[in-house]
């Protein structure tokens, strides 16, 4: 088995020839569709059982509560535990929890407390699985194919969001038990796919050397120390705030103009279709745009599109504008997630991802409250203008950010044309330069710049990954490892890095 940083030069150039990725992705297509199906049926079951919208709200809140309270500790635990085991246990627990719902229906013992507990377990398993999947992906997919893999995962989620709700409603209409049985079976089917993953997930569970609290906050500390990741997450949080509030505002806006429930459903379907189309397009588009243009351009596109909602009363046109905004989202996600996967030290991937999810998803309750306040005080049209103003502020902030303007390129499979290395961008970011095309560095200089920019601990595996991202093309695994070890030793001799434990070939900044 070959870690991603030392992939053989003969590694598959297509994801669909990567058996382990296909097994993981295919299983998650089924599982994600099942989750969307039961997610639609759950509020219908609560309303059909108690007739209380507040009870439906309690169950829904229970399902999202883990997103707020569990992400940080889950990230620390994912980095301590075997990630393949976390993936399997998460799917099994979610499937077993779902099976209790049809059992309760058959016995006539359905209660709000039981459904809330099931929703909480599902949400908790979703948190652990998502963090473990992102952290394990570099062990399954070569670095050059990571953006494409992430784009396929985006398409998977968007497609399930489009197909799952009507499927869940249809199954619920046939029998109340069917959506939950289908979802439980989908989790078990995903477990079968996970059994085909044999690649080392890259983390070695060891005895913890720091407290759980310090380990939990390590991701937040890493994010704050790195300007590009910090700026990207703040932009994500602001865009999530806008778009989470936007959905409710658009529904009220359409109703304000007299749209029927069917028309509103069609409007939201068109909106979701734009996201699916964007996810499919992102598998190729990410190769044709620099990350800098995506981060800045996406925010300006959203800033230009949002005011258009205030000038139309047609729900179909509202849906079309929404589809245009949703089309851009997957490309944005591919760039940001790929950056995190490539730049973050593997031993911190779970914790940094958990910090990112806490920051970016933590704004959603605020968005819901803010949308309600705006609708009450200024009405749906005024609320649209308020969100448009926030999006304009985000676009200006993205354009003005030095870290975003000096964002390095992502690794690609196409190396025919020369391109500046990531280390060149790191040096230029420190010196405040924008023109980096002519910067040429030796392998040792490139590695030194990346170590200074990212910090953390450095072993042979991580050094090879940094050199590959910087443009180094070794003839094989042995040559890559030898080059990385030589550069690390020379940098230690120069006093840039040090080796705290003589028994381990692990370095850190001196």
Within the CATH hierarchy, at the fold level, what is the topology of the largest domain? Growth Hormone, Chain: A
CATH class of the largest domain: Mainly Alpha
Q: SSE order in H/E notation?
A: HHHHHHHHHHHHHHHHHHEHHEE
Distance between the termini: 33 Å
Strand content: under 5%
The number of distinct structural domains comes to 3
Low-confidence stretches: 1-12, 412-440
Largest sheet: 3 strands, antiparallel
Count of strand segments: 3
| Shape summary | globular
What would you say the CATH architecture of the largest domain is?
Answer: Up-down Bundle
Oligomer: single chain
Side-by-side strand order of the widest sheet: 1-3-2
Mean pLDDT: 77
Helix content percent band: over 70%
CATH homologous group name of the largest domain: MFS general substrate transporter like domains
Number of helices: 20
Computed structural class: mainly alpha
Give me the Rg, rounded.
24 Å
Word description of this protein:
This protein has 510 residues and is an all-alpha fold. The protein has 3 domains: 14-199, Growth Hormone, Chain: A, CATH 1.20.1250.20; 219-402, MFS general substrate transporter like domains (Growth Hormone, Chain: A, Up-down Bundle); 422-509, Arc Repressor Mutant, subunit A (Orthogonal Bundle). The chain contains 20 helices and 3 strands. The protein has a 3-stranded antiparallel beta sheet with strand order 1-3-2. Helix 4 (83-107) packs antiparallel against helix 5, helix 8 (212-225) crosses helix 13 (349-361) and helix 9 runs antiparallel to helix 12 (315-343). The longest helix is centred in the N-terminal third of the chain and has 32 residues, at 19-50. The two termini are 33 Å apart. The chain crosses the membrane at residues 21-46, 58-78, 85-106, 112-132, 231-253, 259-282, 294-311, 317-344, 356-376, 382-400. It is a multi-pass membrane protein. Its main location: membrane.
